[in-house]
Amino acid sequence: MSTTQLVALTALWALQVQARPAPSVVFVCEHGAAKSVIATAYFNKLAAERNLPYRATFRGTSPQDELSVRAVEGLKADGVALPNGKPTAITDADVAGATHIFAIGCTLPDAARRSGKSSDWSDVPDDQGYGPMRDAIVRHVQELLNEFARPSSSSAGASTVHFAAAEVGRAPTGWTATQTGTGEAKWAVVRDETAPDGPFVLKQSGQATFPLCLKDDTSLLDGFVEVKFKPISGTQDQAGGVVWRAKDANNYYIARANALENNVTIYHTINGRRTEKKRVQAMVATGQWHTLRVEFRGSQFVVIFNGQKALDWDDETFKDAGRVGVWTKADSVTEFSGFTYGS
């Protein structure tokens, strides 16, 4: 690569980062006095050190009157500035203004859980003292800042699908509603007032090996695909996924999250046979909206779940451009909203 090309590419990446909305982060713990305070303090410190224009605040679900003495003394010993404020309950306004909400050892209120903005840091210890708590939080914060700093393809040529009231009760126009394998998938537009991107969503309520719905007018080689999904029910599976580089209903890449298994997994499907390639544990709650995104360029794929990098994978099975779409498994009843893609 020539120096001129390198400079141009660097400038493009900078423009992409600037074009993305700056993340507004809310950390939440039960009392709003310790874990969320430590997360906010370290997030703001590390973001400033990396010259990233992001800041966070802390909230509680049942806030106590004052900050935790353990958190205050620990941060002072670390030389990290305490964030301003006292423990405060998370509000609907906090949810509306946030781009990312992180629950650290607590159950978020319904508005936050339904927002599609929330993630759970359930591995932060509460009973091992300040050091282990801080270390787990800092690890998460560093991963989060790495994700925020990474160039995104979302600013270039992004398209978002808004399902229409006129299509209620049937599959949306311009999509191929199908399946991989046997059974009978049932795709239809329905109304759901909880949807984060408007009241009309795409719902799969049938039962098939792998229900699949492909956007007909798409052909992406490099780019991204993103969707908000809500797993509703299913005794065999409660999954929601996105598909890219699809040649047909039997050949494509798929990343999915599953509420029964609490994990995120990436696969390829070749001639109708799905093969798992990588998985990671993640909290996927039934009845709540989640965001699943895949960024793909060449042989490199990155899966992002609820705003956090979940996993990456390299593969060269499908090298040509293909369609994007959404996917479920077996008897999963799942709704999809805010389907977005771009190159």
- What fraction, in percent, of the residue positions are helical? 10-25%
Radius of gyration: 21 Å
| CATH superfamily heading of the largest domain | Exo-inulinase, domain 1
For the residues shown, what is the average pLDDT? Answer: 89
In percent terms, what proportion of residues is strand? 35-45%
Number of domains: 2
Low-confidence stretches: 1-21
The CATH class of the largest domain: Mainly Beta
Structural class by sheet pairing and helices:
alpha+beta
The CATH architecture of the largest domain is Sandwich
Protein described:
The protein is α+β, with helices and mostly antiparallel strands and 343 residues long. It folds into two domains: 22-149, Rossmann fold, CATH 3.40.50; 159-342, Jelly Rolls. It is 21% helix and 39% strand. The chain has helices spanning 3-19, 35-49, 69-78, 92-97, 110-114, 130-149; strands at 24-29, 55-60, 100-103, 118-120, 159-161, 175-184, 187-191, 200-204, 207-215, 223-233, 239-248, 251-258, 263-270, 273-281, 290-297, 300-305, 308-314, 323-327, 333-342. Strands 5, 7, 8, 10, 15, 16, 17 and 19 form an eight-stranded antiparallel beta sheet that branches. A seven-stranded antiparallel beta sheet has the order 6-9-18-11-12-13-14, with no helix packed on it. The protein is elongated. The two termini are 22 Å apart.
